[in-house]
Amino acid sequence: LETFSKDTGDPMMQTFLKLFTTHILTSDKLNSVQFIVFFLVNQSKAYIKQFLNINLEIFKSVNQASIIRQSAINHYGGFLCRSLEVGPKTLRKRLNQLVKWIHDYIGRDSSAECDYMAVNLTSHGPFYSACQAAFYVVAFRHADLVENDDVTYLRSLDMNTIITHPLNPLRVINKNVLREFARIMTFYQVAYCNNIILRNKRITLPVIGLSSAGPSTAQGKALMLDDYFPYDKYLLPKTLSLIKPLYREFQPLVNHVSDTDASSGSDSEDSIDDADKQSDCSSFTAQQKQQHQSRRRTPSSSSRRSRTLSVTDVISQVLDTI
């Protein structure tokens, strides 16, 4: 692999691409095997184009199983984020293709038949995976989507239409992707996710552990989307030197707190302060109550004597009458 040559390695590359479609896409949550394809694809711009086309075509094919389509779009989005060989021009072109598919999908769907409180991953699994991939790309590579504080391209994606649609994609995506995506949208003032996130939290808690093909009995509940990111992260130290020059690390926003984080932080501080005050009051009240009860349980000696005398007098009076 260190001496890879396009002329001699092309047959091997085509073989690996076939194995990718027949074996890797159909395997669940691989850790390292997919990085062989990642390394080989990054050896040429032509391979990158071919690899992205393969995944996008599989995803768009309605004849493929839903889980295979979702796996393909996960590889598509993950490669756009992690590959250092994918430049801003290619990134924008491929993101446009993905976002266009999402807009076409929600354009065909009647919003009157959708309920944001009931998420159906069995019917709309590919749509939710596509949204997660698009949000992931925007959150991961936002710096390449904005030129000199010009957010024209980000606005052209019309993310607000996607996040406010009754299919409610923000409810089922990975929470880390959701947090970073919301920060990016707020930072560039393109869309605001805070109200939708808070609304989704008030509906129901997600059911953790159910896959996208959950049973029909759980369709009325909020299911978590399969959050498999195939190129996060490479774990084999001996071959890390081959992957690292091609691998892009995540660069989060610095010195920025989103509205959601700020509100949750202030709420948590208020709740802690309130809890401390309540605990102090409750402890003080408990002490008073305990002292009062102890007084009732342990009466004074005078009261005990008077009670004893009175009872004795009563007994003696009864005995006298007999």
Task: Give a verbal description of the structure.
By secondary structure, the protein is an all-alpha fold. Helix content is 63%, strand content 0%. Helix 1 runs antiparallel to helix 2 and helix 3 (45-60) packs antiparallel against helix 4 (66-82). The longest helix has 39 residues, at 259-297.
Question: What portion of residues is helical?
Answer: 55-70%
Order of helices and strands: HHHHHHHHHHHHHH
The general outline is globular
Whole-Å distance between the termini? 116 Å
* Largest pleated sheet: none
Q: Count the helices. How many?
A: 14
- Determine the structural class based on helices, strands and strand pairing: mainly alpha
Which residues form runs of ≥5 with pLDDT under 50? 210-222, 263-289, 294-309
- Let me know the number of strands: 0
User: Radius of gyration over alpha carbons?
Assistant: 32 Å
Query: Strand portion, in percent?
Result: under 5%
Output mean pLDDT: 79
SSE order and pairing:
Layout: H1 6-24, H2 34-41, H3 45-60, H4 66-82, H5 88-108, H6 121-140, H7 142-145, H8 152-156, H9 159-163, H10 175-187, H11 194-203, H12 240-243, H13 259-297, H14 301-321
Helix pairs in contact: 1-2, 3-4, 4-6, 5-6, 6-10
Brief characterization of the structure:
The chain has 14 helices and no strands. It has 322 residues and is an all-alpha fold.
Which key phrases capture this entry?
mainly alpha; 322 residues; globular
